[in-house]
Amino acid sequence: GLGSIGGVEVTVGFVARFPLPGMAEFVFRATGAGFPSFVILGADSRWTYEDRKPEDMGQKLWKVDSHMGVVYAGDVRCAEESIRAIKKAGQKQRPTNDVELSGLLSQVLRNVYENHRRTRGKQLAPLYCLLGRANIYGQTAALFFSYDDGFQAHPIGCVGAIGMPNACSRFVDALETNIKEQLKRPEPFRLP
Global pTM? Predict the structure, then answer.
């Protein structure tokens, strides 16, 4: 996993929009060049089960199309069916803006999750999704969706994480701290 609490590996998925606050200005000061906008998605590959040993062979990061990707945490079967349904709905309806896209994704995730709830009952685990999108005009979007509120779209400003709450907050705090420290340095930006 990408996170560790007390030596136990835990699931973390994340989305980050770039440039982060202050980064574009830093790059421009350091190089005199502009800074492209983009989105980074990441996740570990661990599937955790209640009744058996975890496996490090899962795929939690999925390409939806050439401009969009999804990271999920939670119920694998529901997530993978949701991703197939998102791809199909996107090809059929072709949303033209972020409002249409958010509505479409909320509807698809809600419908798939409710179908699984009806057929699987208590065997259904929670589901959390992060979406990252960058269009041809350099505009980016990062959204969070959760079963907790019926998969309403929640915009993410810079960095968002899903997984175990402690692991998420520690991951985001560590990333933000590292970026702030890097921005203070006169030499080029780099992650450890």
Answer: 0.75
